[in-house]
Amino acid sequence: MEGLSYFTHSIADSMAVKQRLLESPAVMSTLADVAELCLAAYRRGNKIILAGNGGSAADAQHIAAEFVSRFNFDRPGLPSLALTTDTSILTAIGNDYGFEKLFERQLQANGQPGDVFIGISTSGNSANILRAMEYAREHDIISVGLAGQGGAIQESCDYCISVPSGDTPRIQECHILIGHMICGYVEKEYFYDRP
């Protein structure tokens, strides 16, 4: 039953990282702050913009979909945009300006002061995320990093939620949990008078 042992170990490892997340006061405090910032942005009429590469691109799209469609209950959509979905835009920017400007250029086109930009990078060193963070800081867009336990992103954004792990799959599993929690909290508080 070698396969069973692998699966058991993987689940236990995932649970251990989530337990460390839960037991980190700094991470939990930052998570609460970011959720409140997202809620405040929606109350001001702003939006949430997300980006990432590879699996983190999928996470950005997943989280944006939860805001726009629904999470726990039916309600009006909340404006959210993943900068990872339009192949014409991605290939045009990549070709004309370089991969490092992929998200910065889109943030320039779609971001407004008071919006929240969530950049997802398991390594914390994705050049296109870091450039977008820099643009956000210079243009009054609140910047939030979702990362692992290191990388330049820690100093590049206004808020960083750092998963206490160096293992990419475990970090990604926590990133989607974090996205779900932020979305669930915002949805509950924004539409507090609904069931």
From TrEMBL:
<protein>
    <recommendedName>
        <fullName>Phosphoheptose isomerase</fullName>
        <ecNumber>5.3.1.28</ecNumber>
    </recommendedName>
</protein>
<feature type="binding site">
    <location>
        <position position="66"/>
    </location>
    <ligand>
        <name>Zn(2+)</name>
    </ligand>
</feature>
<comment type="subunit">
    <text>Homotetramer.</text>
</comment>
<feature type="binding site">
    <location>
        <position position="66"/>
    </location>
    <ligand>
        <name>substrate</name>
    </ligand>
</feature>
<dbReference type="InterPro" id="IPR050099">
    <property type="entry name" value="SIS_GmhA/DiaA_subfam"/>
</dbReference>
<dbReference type="InterPro" id="IPR035461">
    <property type="entry name" value="GmhA/DiaA"/>
</dbReference>
<dbReference type="Pfam" id="PF13580">
    <property type="entry name" value="SIS_2"/>
</dbReference>
<feature type="binding site">
    <location>
        <position position="62"/>
    </location>
    <ligand>
        <name>Zn(2+)</name>
    </ligand>
</feature>
<comment type="similarity">
    <text>Belongs to the SIS family. GmhA subfamily.</text>
</comment>
<keyword id="KW-0119">Carbohydrate metabolism</keyword>
<keyword id="KW-0963">Cytoplasm</keyword>
<keyword id="KW-0862">Zinc</keyword>
<dbReference type="GO" id="GO:0005737">
    <property type="term" value="C:cytoplasm"/>
</dbReference>
<dbReference type="GO" id="GO:0008968">
    <property type="term" value="F:D-sedoheptulose 7-phosphate isomerase activity"/>
</dbReference>
<feature type="binding site">
    <location>
        <position position="180"/>
    </location>
    <ligand>
        <name>Zn(2+)</name>
    </ligand>
</feature>
<feature type="binding site">
    <location>
        <position position="172"/>
    </location>
    <ligand>
        <name>substrate</name>
    </ligand>
</feature>
<dbReference type="GO" id="GO:0005975">
    <property type="term" value="P:carbohydrate metabolic process"/>
</dbReference>
<feature type="binding site">
    <location>
        <position position="172"/>
    </location>
    <ligand>
        <name>Zn(2+)</name>
    </ligand>
</feature>
<dbReference type="GO" id="GO:0008270">
    <property type="term" value="F:zinc ion binding"/>
</dbReference>
<dbReference type="InterPro" id="IPR001347">
    <property type="entry name" value="SIS_dom"/>
</dbReference>
<feature type="binding site">
    <location>
        <begin position="121"/>
        <end position="123"/>
    </location>
    <ligand>
        <name>substrate</name>
    </ligand>
</feature>
<feature type="binding site">
    <location>
        <begin position="53"/>
        <end position="55"/>
    </location>
    <ligand>
        <name>substrate</name>
    </ligand>
</feature>
<dbReference type="GO" id="GO:2001061">
    <property type="term" value="P:D-glycero-D-manno-heptose 7-phosphate biosynthetic process"/>
</dbReference>
<feature type="domain" description="SIS">
    <location>
        <begin position="38"/>
        <end position="195"/>
    </location>
</feature>
<dbReference type="InterPro" id="IPR046348">
    <property type="entry name" value="SIS_dom_sf"/>
</dbReference>
<comment type="pathway">
    <text>Carbohydrate biosynthesis; D-glycero-D-manno-heptose 7-phosphate biosynthesis; D-glycero-alpha-D-manno-heptose 7-phosphate and D-glycero-beta-D-manno-heptose 7-phosphate from sedoheptulose 7-phosphate: step 1/1.</text>
</comment>
<dbReference type="InterPro" id="IPR004515">
    <property type="entry name" value="Phosphoheptose_Isoase"/>
</dbReference>
<keyword id="KW-0479">Metal-binding</keyword>
<feature type="binding site">
    <location>
        <position position="126"/>
    </location>
    <ligand>
        <name>substrate</name>
    </ligand>
</feature>
<feature type="binding site">
    <location>
        <begin position="95"/>
        <end position="96"/>
    </location>
    <ligand>
        <name>substrate</name>
    </ligand>
</feature>
<keyword id="KW-0413">Isomerase</keyword>
<dbReference type="GO" id="GO:0097367">
    <property type="term" value="F:carbohydrate derivative binding"/>
</dbReference>
<comment type="function">
    <text>Catalyzes the isomerization of sedoheptulose 7-phosphate in D-glycero-D-manno-heptose 7-phosphate.</text>
</comment>
